[in-house]
Amino acid sequence: MNSSRQKLHWRVVGASVCGTSHIKNSQLCQDAHHWAMLPNNILVAAAADGAGSASLGKVGAMVATEAAIENISLKQINQHTLGDDTRAKSLLSEAILAAKTAVEEEAIASNRPPKDLATTLIIVVATAEVAVVAQVGDGVAVVKDTVGNLTALTLPDNGEYINETSFLTSPTALDSVQVNVSRQDITNIAILTDGLQMLAINMAVGLPHKPFFLPLFDFVANAQELKGAKEQLVKFLRSEKITQRTDDDLTLVIAALSD
Predict the structure, then answer these.
(1) 187: Cβ–Cβ under 8 A, 6 or more apart, which residues?
(2) pLDDT tens for residues 223-250?
(3) Residue 203 and residue 72: Cα distance in Å, rounded?
């Protein structure tokens, strides 16, 4: 393991903003995101998109992201935990299950059927040498390596129609989970919900769009102050450049390793 890369630390900026269609209809943003820094410079981040047809989709998204992060954070994972593919995948699969259980319990507490809290979920655990991801539904997780290559760690789970996908509350959700491990020298991680995927990914071949990601990765790496950077990210997501191409809710979590 490269000791110089172990000294790098994560800089993270994330935002969820309401899509223009939801603003016009006086609806809340259905997206949510959450992230945490664990000991040994381990980043854990999650993003979720509550179903537009679900009356409590926002609640489902918030519960799912928070439960997933909490489940992983309480396990005191380390580099050794992530050093074995089977153990790493199991860690993320258990977090997906914990999130699903938490959403279902919230539905019971609210006296509502689980489908009213339907949501997608993407979880990433990353160090300078490995990224592990689990995903139910659409959206995408992307990693950049030290030579500038971008790799989609997951692909959007779309059904026959563009607005179809799998949800965490589905009885078959655990059968549709994507769980992947990428071992390389990592510089950046990004997670985004489906509102941005048509701008960020060449859907025909599943390749990340460099003109979208590279400026954002540089922006986070060089930001002087992360609170101000979040405000700038929100402004970017609300800009005409974005809203002219998508009217959906938007979530973007960007992480950069920096010294």
Answers:
(1) 144, 145, 146, 217, 256, 257
(2) 988 889 999 999 999 999 999 999 999 9
(3) 31
